[in-house]
Amino acid sequence: MHTIILPYFSEAEIDRYERILDHMLSMESPKCEFEFLLSASPRTEPSDRLMRSASRIAPASHLHCPTQVFGYPFGATAMFWDSMRHVADMSDDNNGFALWMESDMCPVAADWLDRLDDHWQSSGDVLLMGCEVPDVYRDCQKKFRLYRPFRHRPIEKKRWIARHINGGACYRRDLIHQVSPEYQDGIFDVRLGDLLREQGGYSSTPAIAFSTLDRLNHDLRDPDKVLLHGYLQDKDTFLHACISGEAVAAPSPTVERRVFFGRFSTRVKPHPSEAMLAAILEAKEPELPALKIVQRQAISRTEAIASPAPTTTQSQQSKAA
């Protein structure tokens, strides 16, 4: 049994999920058994409209996430662990996975879930399977580089993003019992990346991949990709393009006017994370049509199993509204 988790916090998110669910309904029925978990933000009432849409496809249930943490990314992290705790409590077995499916992720192959099921069954004893984000570096000069004592200092190469599996991924259903509390604090996929670098236990699959409006036409023709994540794209435009298969132009960047030495000059102001996205896509190795499996190391899991799952941590409480 697999669980597809649909996390939402607004009516706009529900609208997007309805479009995704309609798209799923138009595809062939998966052979593998699955269900939906509709995870509502603490600030959002569970949606009967979304329940009706999901129930047309598979059994569905509500979860009103209890942890009172809001804002990105810590609100999403709290919802993730609330959902994984619920999945673990309600699961009779751990043969399947829980797919954290955000509203900018869209299936693009009719057999998408069966393909993910095949990959998961081939991965062995792993905690998660998804799209691997590599180590991404950026060049950064020393502070005060314009001053003479520092002018000739070499440019340093600093790690911008550490290797991890992107948050929209397939997770072991009892993940919360396999991960010690120290790795449940902080941004969930980044902290899990820290754990995986130390202990292994993940599978990088070409079936789940980042995509953009610029490269979507190429990705839709790639037979190895079945679930695309439109990271930092216009969500509605990206979903329309995935569902319709129509070519779409990337939106024009925003333009900002600024004062420079008393005169106005015009410059292009991209999204602050677009440079990071470009670095991720550039740094990624070509995806092979096979799983890249990193086995779990033989370590003691006593602490992870014996330690109770944390409730809201002090750092999270400080961010609660």
TrEMBL record:
Q: Which domain of life is it from?
A: Bacteria
The protein's name in its UniProt record? Glycosyl transferase family 2
